[in-house]
Each structure stands twice: as C-alpha cells, then as structure tokens.
Amino acid sequence: MPVDAKEGDRKISPVLPWESPGAAYVPNMPAVRDVSLSRASKFILSCLMVLWSLFLALNSLLRGSFRTDNTRGLLHPSINSTVCPQWDALYPIINTQIDAELDNIFASTDFKLRTIDLLAGAVRIPTESHDNSGPVGEDSVWDSFADLHEYLERAFPLVYAKLNVTKINTYGLVYHWQGSTEAKPILLTAHQDVVPVDPTTVSQWIHPPYSGHYDGTWIWGRGSCDDKSEIIERLVAVDTLLRHGFSPARTVIIAFGFDEETTGFEGAGHIAKYLEETYGHDGFAMLVDEGTGLDANFGNNIYFATPAVSEKGYLDVRVEITSPGGHSSIPPAHTGIGLLSLAVSAIEAIPYTPELLRNGTPFSTIQCIANYSPSFPEYLRTLSRKAVNDDSALARLKNALSKLSPATEALLMTTQAVDIIEGGVKVNALPERASAVVNHRIAEHSSVAELQQHYIDVLSPVAASHKLTLRVFGRVIVTGDSGEITVSTAFGTPLEPSPKTPVGYGPYSIVGGTIKATVATSKLYSGTSVILGPSLLMRTLTLLSFAFPCHIDDGLVAENTDTMHYWNLTKNIFRFSLVTESDHYNGVHTVNEALRADALIEGIRFLTKLILNVDESALS
Ligand SMILES: [Zn+2]
C-alpha cells in the first residue's frame, strides 16, 4: 500500500502497538486506527487504498519524481514502497520539551568534552577477552573488570544512586530503572570486554592502544568503537535524562556482558537467565544491542539504516576416522588419513547452495537497496523488482547475487570451511585416528538439523563403499567392519540461526523512526535522508555489501553478538549502532581503533530519543 509520506506526521499510539494482536500493518499511516471494522468496511477501505495507490503512482510518474537521468528506476525517500515500507521520523511528543532541552545540551562543547573524558577513562582500563581464560573469580585475567566497575560507579554517581545495579556472575552489570507502569521494559545492551591488542602491533598505533587520547577529532584506543562507546552512551543517556527530571513510565534495563568477544556465555549467558527469571519469557518490549550502523555509500546524500534483525547460526563439526592400526609395510588401499581425505573431498564436492527466499531477510534488504540506492547496478535493480512475483527472476537474482562476490554468496547460504586437520603419529605406523574440523555458519533459512542431515547424505556413500560405520551426532546411519566415521560437534554447542525480528509497525518502526529523527536533527549527518531496511548480520558485514563488495574490510568474522543469549527475552531484537563507517578511524578489532567524538554524541542522542519514544508508546 504505497501512501505518500511526510516526515514528522506520525501520531503516537495510545497503546503499545505491538501488543495489539492482529493489528493491521499499514505503513506510513497514522498509528491510531479502528481495529473493529466490519468486513464490508474493510473491503471498501481496501478498494479506496488501491485507487489511492494508483493515483499516487500515476501522479508521481507524471511529475517525474521517480526518475532523474542518473537515478533511473529509483524511489525518492519520501515515496513509499510496498516491499520496503518507510516509517516517518518519530519525535517524542509528550516529552518534546525535554527532548529539545537535551539536544541543546548535547550540542554544547562542555557536554562533549565531559563525555569524551568519560569514554577515554573507560578505554584506559584494558578489559581484554581471552579465549583461554580461567573461571570467573579464579583467573586474575578478569580483575580489570572490577576496575571498570569501580570506574563506572565513580563516573556515574547519579545513575548508581537512582538505579538498582545488580552484578551477575561477578562481572555482568544490570541497571534497573523502574518505570511507573507495568509496561514491558526496554532492554539496552552492550559489552565491557575488548579484543586483545596484539603486542607486536603496538608500534603501529598512532596513539597507544589504551591511551584514550583525544586529538580534537578522534578518541583513540581499543574499545573506543567496540564497545566501550556503547556502554558510555547508554549510561550518559540515562544520566542526562535523570538530571532533567525524567522518570520513565516504562522500566529501562541496561545490561553489559563481559565476554562477548569470546562466547558471551559467562556474561550475557548468565544475564539472560537472570533477566528471564526476573521478567519472564518474552518479558521485554524490545532489545537494542551493538550492530550495523548507517551506511553512507549509496550516493545522493542517502544513508541506509539497517538494523540487523537476524544472525546466522553456527556449528563446528568434527569428522573423525578410526581404523585398524598396523605396520606401514603392509598398508590397506586407504589408511585412516586416506579415508578422512575421501570424506573431506565428499564434503567439499557437495557444498550447500545459496537460497533467496521472499520471506527471508536478505530478500527484504535487497528490495530496499533496489528501490532506494542510486548506485545499485541497474540490471540487479530490474531483476530485484521482477523477483517480487516472478519465480524465474527470483532464481536469476539469486544467481547474480551469488556471483557478485564470495561474501555476498556466503550471506545466502550455509557455509563450510575445513579449517583443522590432524592424524597419524609415526611414519611407520598406520594411523588409528584422523580428524578434521569443519566450520559452519548456518543460513537464516536453514537449521542445525538440516546441517546434520547434509552430513548423512554426503558421507553415507563414502561409508558404504569402504565398509565403514557412519555415526552422525550419535545416530548410527551405516554399519561396517573396517572402521568408523564419527561426525560430532567439535567445540561449544550448536547455534541455530536467530529468530527473525518482525519488521513492520511496532518496535521496528519505532527504532527506524527514532533513527530518522536523530539524523534529521543532527549536525554531523546533516543534509541526508535515511532509508530504513532490515538486514542479516554476519558481524559487521551485511547484505549492504552487495552494492559494494570491495567495501568489506574487517567484517567476515561472523561470530554472533551477545544477543544470541537473549532470544527468550523478546521477539524484537535489533542489532544497531548509530554510527557510520567514516566515524571509525580504522574499523574495529585492528590497530588504530578510534571513534569520531561527534559520533559518540550522536549515539547518545539516538538512545535518549529512543528511550523517550518507547516510553511514550505506552501512554496517551
Ligand atoms: Zn562488540
């Protein structure tokens, strides 16, 4: 239903919109609506909407506003799309005055310098996450987190005085800001740990990695971008709201894990259990964690804001061969290592295939790019539009996207990479054991069970033809007497692809509307329009890289964010940080991590507006 949109004309719903089951999804329409329409009324309304849509489309075409010479086929940001609906900028209404006052304060040099100091102080405490750390409370590697806690308590006395602060598993931090109503709380998360600085690279840093040095533009140091800035932004947002007498109607919970860069189990894992026990399953209205940001690479002063609404799953699989030993002078046709090689060859001979499903996040992202990105290749734009209801175009689009780059292909499929292999102990002894570990990132449309079945399909013929028993995740699939292939989880626990956050009217539109309101009133990002589109997160890489495959740098790590522990808390999980690539001096997880100081302030503005907008969504 394309409906003309004007910035700022949204009304605030008197009830939580996403708590009204069955409420119709009407992009860019006023939020208040009568849900008790009769069928006849609905039919008439539908007809009117169709006529209105046709009128708008015709009108736009006649005015030529869809097209200019260098942006053929492009929708203007103020024109709505049925496949990538846009939501208007959303400003606090009840708290208009406090919002304006805070924007004034955020614009002051004094506030900026104090905030920079707060982040610099946090950066100076090297809370490094190590893969081989001992248990919390025993290994001294965790001690720096106690230092960070002391620092935060000194830096934010008002927050610690007014909010309930609970420590979970010693170093997890949960701040509880009680609201005056029973409305579901909002949860804002970040992580206290940073990736270690490689000692051999220290000399490459322009300013020392734990200096927190501010050079007038950049705040330098490990954690300045990932993720100390988000900790400081959340606490400063709450501190500033407290100082201006705001008290929430909706409870605000802030939670900081402390091992996101390894697995998150010690921090977010424990915090998740605590929050579920305290607030119940699905006890939160929404969650905002670190994630994707604003992408400014689309030309024409357009930013794409792409909150990540899902993440791929994860599994490391060990394929192990056990076979009879003996002297190498009388070898069989295939030793254990040979059999393992056959298994690896079979695995690589039948890789997973890319899928592009209309109900999947990659498809939604690509539609947003096709509709609104001036720099998207025209042949892909045309294909994308046809693919909305043409199956053969959908297949061609999938193939075209898969060929664009290995990274774009990876986003559409479960990936496999044989990364570790070992076996054999002596040159004159037949190996009795050999194994390989295969790393998998599981596609949004797939599952751990499908991946396990794939191993059965691929390895059964190998087992049968060499008289081997095949045991896959505990199930005997084929029996044989010449040895065994055992397929099992190599490390950790299998992780399913995340649930998909609903994208429509509700939390998604509030987050999107708040992003637009923040950018629309920003000096740093002035003169730009924002397009909102959902994305699938593979660490910092998203489907936006479709348009700019060369633009991927540090992205392809693809471990999941802390949100993988929080699935039970809410259906509405957004992985989004209000920051552009150019606000990072040199990316994250590498040398010369530095954040543009002005971006720190923008992050605070976004979170403050978000708290106010979400708070108002519960009240008339
Ligand atoms: Zn992070």
From TrEMBL:
InterPro entries: ArgE/DapE_CS, Bact_exopeptidase_dim_dom, Pept_M20_carboxypep, Pept_M20A, Peptidase_M20
Residue numbers binding Zn(2+) 2: 191, 226, 289
Binding site for Zn(2+) 1: 226, 261, 589
Active site: 193, 260
Pfam family, one: Peptidase_M20
A Gene Ontology cellular-component term: fungal-type vacuole lumen
Keyword list, A-Z: Hydrolase, Membrane, Metal-binding, Protease, Transmembrane, Transmembrane helix, Zinc
Any GO MF annotation of the entry: metallocarboxypeptidase activity
Biological processes annotated in GO: proteolysis involved in protein catabolic process
Transmembrane regions: 43-62
PROSITE patterns in the cross-refs: ARGE_DAPE_CPG2_1, ARGE_DAPE_CPG2_2
Family as reported in the entry's similarity comment: Belongs to the peptidase M20A family.
Protein name: Peptidase M20 dimerisation domain-containing protein
Organism whose genome encodes this protein: Pisolithus microcarpus 441
